[in-house]
Amino acid sequence: MSRIVFVNGAFVPFEQASIPIMDRGFLFADGIYEVSAVLNSRLVDNDAHLARLERSLAEIRIPNPYTREEWTRLEEELVRRNGLVEGVVYMEVTRGAAERDFAFPKDATPTVVMFTQAKVISRAPAAETGVAVISVPDLRWKRRDIKSVALLAQVLAKQAAAEAGVAEAWMVEDGHVTEGSSSTAFIITRDGRIVTRPLSNAILPGITRRAVMRLAAENGLVVEERLFTLDEAYGAAEAFYTSASAFVMPVVEIDGRAVGAGKPGPLTRRLRELYLAMAGATAEAA
Ligand code: PDD
Fold first, then answer.
1. What is the DSSP string of 96-127?
2. CA proximity to 129, closest of 268, 232, 279
3. What's the total number of domains in the chain?
4. DSSP-assigned letter for residue 15
5. Domain final residue pick, 63, 92, 118
6. Quick check: 114 and 5 in contact, CB under 8 A?
7. Are residues 66 and 140 in the same domain?
8. 179 Cα nearest atom in ligand 1
9. Is 106 a catalytic residue?
10. What pLDDT shows up at residue 285?
């Protein structure tokens, strides 16, 4: 069965899908994207992802082509047509195709592309062993709260991680960790406080971050939103990162130094279990 993708209102076989060379997503990275997880063929926390998609579009003044209900129906249809059980749905909206000119075109229609990717998330072997990360300078622009497709700094960060043989790169600015190249960074202090950077223009407001913080609070764990340095991360009891495509991923090594005992810590494991239970329940109830 060929992969079916969604392009500008139609479900088409992957091989037949195309967009014009004048698309502003291609020429200017003038667009935004969103990634929702799929577990048991159901979307996880999808309303929050669609709310962020709406916000990203509004921030760069691209009209939202669909209502939240329409987006949801399209995503569900794509999951169904591809028989996707576990993985992600990727959605992208650009300002559309027009003769190349920096300012907004007058009459462009937004381009909408969606596709699915199968991925083992809930039983990922890396979640059992934990992963290593490296630190890199944060080279990004100043509106990281927008989920923009301008991802060159993250591409370079992830490539540095790949060349170092590790899973993720944590980006550092003014001595403080901002976030992962495609994930939210957390550390756990020796007295059991879960620390992550507060929301601002400096980071993407992670949907998994929000769910994990809510689950932690509901289960009597202490969450502290504040900046933390790389040195504090090196000396942390535990560390992990969150994203729609990894859920809660234990970090056991940063820049070649073992974090805590050098294996996934008890609080990180608990948070992963809590998240999996929540995601599984949402997925079943949907
Ligand atoms: N990335 N920070 C950045 C820079 C990200 O790109 C992502 C997600 C996150 C985590 O956000 P969420 O929990 O909402 O997935 C944080 C997606 C998965 C991606 O680019 O593929």
1. -B-SS-SSPPSSPPPEEEEEEEE---TT-HHH
2. 268
3. 2
4. G
5. 118
6. yes
7. no
8. 2
9. no
10. 55
Beta pairing class for 222-225 and 111-118: unpaired
Ligand 1 atom at shortest distance from the alpha carbon of 208: 13
Ligand 1, from 39, 44, 179, 183: best to mutate by most atoms within 8 Å of Cβ? 183
| 223 and 242 share one domain | yes
- Phi, psi (deg, nearest 5) at residue 279: -65, -40
Q: Using the structure block, give the residue that is written with the tokens 């059980």.
A: 85
Find the catalytic residue in 106, 119, 142, 147: 147
Per the structure, the complete domain to which residue 33 belongs is given by 4-118
Tell me, in angstroms, the distance from the centre of ligand 1 to residue 93's CA: 16
1 CA → ligand 1 middle, Å: 29
Residue 103's pLDDT is 98
Which residues 6+ apart lie within 8 Å of 81 measured at CB?
A: 4, 11
Quick one: 9 and 87 in the same domain? yes
CATH of the domain at 14: 3.30.470.10
* Pocket flag, ligand 1, residue 148 (CB < 6 Å): no
Question: What's the confidence (pLDDT) of residue 2?
Answer: 85
- Both structure tokens of 50: 């669609």
Does ligand 1 lie within 6 Å of residue 56's CB atom? Answer: no
Residue ranges for the chain with pLDDT beneath 70: 1, 283-286
Given the CA of residue 210, which atom of ligand 1 is nearest to it? Answer: 13
